Amino acid sequence: MATVPWLVDVLRGAGVQVVTHGDWVNRMRPGSFDPIGVLWHHTAATSSASNPHPALNVCINGRSDLPGPLCQALVDYHGVFHVISAGRCNHAGVSRGSGPIPAGDGNTLMIGWEIDYNGVNQEMTAAQYNASIAATAAVLKRLGRDASYARGHRETSTSGKIDPSFIDLNTMRADVAAKMAGGSTWSSVVDNSTAGRFTASTNWGTSSYSAQRYGTDYRFAQPVAASDAAWYRFNVPATANYRVDAWWPAVSGYNTATPYIVSTTTGNRTVIVNQAATGGQWRSLGTFTLPAGDANRVAVSRWSSAPGLVVADAVRLTRV
């Protein structure tokens, strides 16, 4: 049986945020697996910012009527890929054939992404969409296939599946093709020590306490009922959609409800993060439409009702 132990490296190489679960390399169903394409699904579970991957346990362990794993990866609300298997999974059933994917055993023929949204009154988030495009393009390149080998479950199902809902699959394939066609993607990082790009009041101290920091140090301040924001300035090349990622060192006792402010074309958007956890890595705040120009675009605010230090370390923008 073939496996895809390269999956995590390929996804990370495409800039996709990845979390692995248990012995994912050896977790699989018995039977053949020789994938030639990627199949998109939705989980039918309701995800949210505070509950980003409600279907993860089911996708790993299965249901009473269908043993797991149920996909190679689950895509959570924030666009994080949770990789659970490098082998055959129970996600596709029998394929009736679609595009270049022939009729046959879909679990043999395709790698499956379960995108965690309910598909009834909830669409996939922009972060889920963008991560799925990047991941699909990277995997198809590795398989030596073009974008036509990406299909939706509703296109291959013999039992009337409707997933993934609320998406034009031809448009999604076109976006995969564009991603595969290449061209460099604009990306820029501003650290708290980037000259002329970071501003904060004297209320913000400087620390190198945590080894999870980005660069040599980071800034910190006590939470107060006032903004007193630390701002990151970017020279955005064009009005377009950008993924905003933040990096902070997680320390027990740091602030669990830190506001990040993103200055978009339609006004400021606030995203709350837990800086006591998931530190030392890029964490997506979401995808936003940002205006062109050189200006303050992202801030960390001190206005938090939670205790613990608020931290300002690094921010990254990536055009998607």
What does this structure look like?
- This protein is of the alpha+beta class and 320 residues long.
- 16% of the residues lie in helices and 33% in strands.
- The chain contains 6 helices and 22 strands.
- The protein has helices at residues 7-13, 56-61, 106-109, 126-143, 153-156, 169-180; strands spanning 18-20, 37-42, 62-63, 66-67, 73-75, 81-83, 94-98, 101-105, 110-115, 150-152, 187-191, 198-199, 205-207, 218-221, 230-236, 240-247, 258-264, 267-273, 283-290, 293-300, 310-312, 314-319.
- The strands form 6 sheets. Strands 1-6-5-9-2-10 form a 6-stranded mixed sheet.
- A hairpin with a 2-residue loop joins strand 3 and strand 4.
- Helix 1 crosses helix 4 (126-143) and helix 4 (126-143) crosses helix 6 (169-180).
- The mean pLDDT is 94.
Note the topology:
Blueprint: H1 7-13, E1 18-20, E2 37-42, H2 56-61, E3 62-63, E4 66-67, E5 73-75, E6 81-83, E7 94-98, E8 101-105, H3 106-109, E9 110-115, H4 126-143, E10 150-152, H5 153-156, H6 169-180, E11 187-191, E12 198-199, E13 205-207, E14 218-221, E15 230-236, E16 240-247, E17 258-264, E18 267-273, E19 283-290, E20 293-300, E21 310-312, E22 314-319
Parallel strand pairs: 1-6, 2-9, 2-10, 5-9
Antiparallel strand pairs: 3-4, 5-6, 7-8, 11-22, 12-15, 13-14, 14-21, 15-20, 16-19, 16-22, 17-18, 17-20
